Amino acid sequence: MGALFTTILTGPAFAQDGAKPSDAVDPFIGTGGEGHTFPGAVAPFGMVQLSPDTDTSCVIRTCYGHAAGYRYDDPTIEGFSHTHFSGAGHSDLGDILVMPVSGDSVPMDPGTPAAPGYRSRFSHATEVAKPGYYAVTLDGPGVRAEMTAGTRIGVHRYSFPKGKAAHIVVDLRSSLYNYPGKILWSGLHMRDDGVLTGFRETRGWAPGRKLYFAMRFSAPLVGHALVNREKDIAYKGFQGPGRGSDALAEKLGQALEARLDFGQLDAPLEVKVGISGVDEAGALANLDSEPGGFDAVRTKTQGDWDTALGAVKFEAAAPMRRIFATALYHSLLAPSVWSDSDGRYRGPDDQVHQADGFTVRSTFSLWDTFRAEHPLLTLIQPEKTNTDIVRSLIASQRHSPDGILPVWQFAGRETWTMIGYHAVPVIADAYMKGIGGFDADAALQAMVASADRASYGGLGEYIQRGYVPIDKEPEAASKTVEYAYDDWTIARMARRMGKTEIAERFEKRAGNWRNSFDAKTGWLRARLANGAFRTPFDPTAINYGSDYTEGNAWQYSWFVPQDQAGLFRLLGGDAKTVKKLDAMFEFDNSKVDYSHAEDIAGLIGQYIHGNEPSHHVAYLYNYAGAPWRTQERLGQIVASQYGAKPEGLSGNDDLGQMSAWLVFTALGFYPVAPGSNEYVIGRPFLSQATLALPSGKQFAIRTDNLSDANPYIRSVTLNGTPLTRSYLRDDEIRQGGELRFVMGAQPNKAWGKGAKARPFSSSTAGSNGPARKGTRRRGDDPTTRR
Predict the structure, then answer these.
(1) Which of 312, 377, 571, 586 has its Cα between 20 and 30 A from that of 498?
(2) pLDDT tens-digit profile of 162-185?
(3) How many CB atoms are located within 10 Å of the residue 773 CB?
């Protein structure tokens, strides 16, 4: 297996000592291929993601490859907009596009790469991307463009060629995920002090999304024009108040642009922009809440990044150092700040609310991020970050017209994309780990309300029958097992809180995964309302809207994170389970066509690392007493699915999930079942690492004999004591200490083999599982293995 590690572990070792943590990050990783990340400027969890858009001309699903606005292989830049997703599988945002223009003529349309208007060609050789900073030279206007961002602001700096007039085009028509009529209404207002404010309401992935901005310039305007281009578009759509105003100081409509003229400048032009989901006054207040010009904002944001990234100090060989640092960076972009500097925010009911003592977060890609992204934040971010996340989820449910926790939410608006109610494990995992600062009773009520919402995703049928029937609801097999896992996390939290009735009800529901598992064939399958499994059946088939969500039976038959031991018994025991896991990774796909499925990327047999349902599967060998097989598979995955290049992510980063998987895996352990307070040990890819924990303590990971030739764990010690089990407890990490791996050329097949050495499963740990010591809080009930 040694050859699998060549591209990851060879090369000289680099330490972070003497260098800033941000120096190792390469924001271009993931901007090519299927990563869907952006290279632009953003602060940790920032509301503003100021980044170049290389193409916004695509429509609806053809925007998939440009979901982040920027694609590395595009030759031109259309402009710089202020909101972007990092690695989403769906496009939207791209708000408030700004583009510099020089000379006497000012084109007001972007044009095409072949016939540019304000669009410009560029060379990657002129690009610089670092945490909180992006720069590029635009060939067309001859302008050096630089970007930085604070929490709620973005700052542009444009160096125009001498002797040429400087102009800025602000285009409110431009956005990602375009189609006629997306812009429901927009406005531009040139204020007496030269500040440009405005807004727009869009109907895209999230309906009725409102965004406001305020834009201030470092040089005075010598002229401007606010232009309504509606005569050039066929769709008229929403008719709002004030339509058709011809006043130079204000313009309302659906296709607005501003031309801003500055004459010839002797110094770079700085454009400082604040945004808000509340109103223009909020955007102005946000603009003023982070003082200073370009350099001051850049310096502060770089410091913020060095603090955030410094939570993990590590040493690794090149290129793993670059891959790991960038993965850590990508895991700290979302969920993004959504409330204004005064605490106001727009909720899912489209009303303005006031946050009481916490910062509201949005951009919740929960089907993806409950798995590793949120568990990672509980270890490497201050408790306040995690408290803010939980309080934001609770507040969203309270304001939701549907009474449900967020599913896939951004800018306070619900998209109803993906399945499950995966805000539930995020809350439960935080609570079980002792993270406080929120009302646990209110949280549990919100979790139960979401799980009992009969009108959502076949839940009524699930509650009545114990499974979701495929002739009543699409993607029924996936929904059944994901609901069952979510239910288990409700039971875990309720049991810890002493809410026995709730705990027992949801412990029973957590076993519903069995109702869609066909023990005769060994597959998770969709069942009809009459109880029969649907036929015909092909475990390799992937058809959206069918039995499974972005996957097939090969991936979803392993999704029982709360009770892998129970699943393995149905499969016939350890040997048969290992054989089936091997068959998944070694499956011959030569006769399988997945070209119709956008999210199916990064295949290793039927293991699909580019999408989330597979992410825990390599760790399942541990549950069958064969951790050495997990170690082999992880080497195979890391070497083939990650790289220090623009195409370095095999699939969508999905708001940090792909990156968080790599961070955990490189450290040597992974949260297979968030809510269990355990991490399954894999194998490390770093020579050493130290976690600066929220408590102020440190947890060190040391790896002896790490090399291409030594891919296997020979032994593990925790604080100097041999560790013979293949899992870590959360409290063991939070107490601080040292985890030491000794690597070797041959596997230690005895390590982690015994039944008591295996990770948590509810059916072997007792109904109150895990029946082990874990992080405990006020009033916790003591539990022991039985």
Answers:
(1) 377
(2) 999 999 999 999 988 766 678 999
(3) 14
